[in-house]
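Long-time lurker. I teach an intro course on protein structure, and each term I like to show students one example going from raw sequence to a predicted 3D structure in token notation. This year I'd like something fresh instead of my usual example. Would anyone be willing to generate the tokens for the chain below so I can use it in lecture? Attribution to the forum is fine with me.
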Amino acid sequence: MLERILQICLLKIEIIMPKQRILVIGASGQIGVELTLALRKIYGNNNVIASDLREQNPLLEGSGPYVSLDVMNKEMLHVQVIRQNITQIYLLAAILSATGEKNPNLAWHLNMQGLLNVLDIAREENLHKVYWPSSIAVFGPTSPKVNCPQQTIIEPITVYGISKYAGEFWCNYYHQRFGIDVRSLRYPGLISYKSAPGGGTTDYAVEIFHEAKEEKKYECFLKEDTYLPMMYMPDAIKATIELMEAPASKITTRTSYNISGMSFSPKEIAAEIKKHIPEFEISYKDDYRQSIANSWPQSIDDTIARNDWGWKEEYNLSTMVKDMLDNISK
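-- Reply from a regular --
Happy to contribute to a lecture. Here you go:
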């Protein structure tokens, strides 16, 4: 299904759009690897420049250009945007929820200043579009727990959530004040077999597959009945590209769109894995991440995204689990 979406996007782009040059910042991260590869299929390998502070992910090697880049170094970032004739930026570099609580000042500084650097350069160079991801971490204990709506009480309790909520309003400000076409999604927990998670509260939903295959057991850092919104990575990539390819007239939310794929608990995903690996066992020993998870909604209402630009997920819990286990085996 993702392949078909990419082919359709490519056909539309060739017909109606001028040549695009895209810079992906944070390309070696969990989202960045798969998004970079998907964008290269659409725009051509040489027109999507991957960048990161760390070494290039092996999955990206040989698939297109790569530059070492620190989003906090605004001058060097600006030089690369000009040198590479960049027209769009996807800013994925961030310190996530669990890691951010260990160093709040660093998390705030990187998450905020990196975004402001990109938005300033986008304004100065008249870039066509900017993509910046937000997160369900913007929600807090006072937000509705079930079918949390787009507009509601938002009082985050982690520095990651605070930085993402502030970033949403910076995106809206630069759109309203300077006309920057910046777009965003509030990602739920993301599950992928191609790249490792980056220090988030929902990382258990990736770790559990590797432990199930290798050890036939897993000790979860969340309680068994902790429900959280989740999404399989192919759906996340699909949603990101569909949002960015949607006509500007369809985009009514310039902070960040709620987006949802599925919701489940550790107990439920373990039961689904057990259907494929009968000897698998799970145990529970919650840690500091449990309080973070408790502050987030159990499910998300993404009606506005569905109505505005036709969002619809492809994977549910059972199809995601089967695909994960099949591909981890490979």
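Some talking points for your students: The first strand starts at residue 22 and ends at 25. The domain at 2-188+233-244+255-260 is CATH 3.40.50.720 (Rossmann fold).
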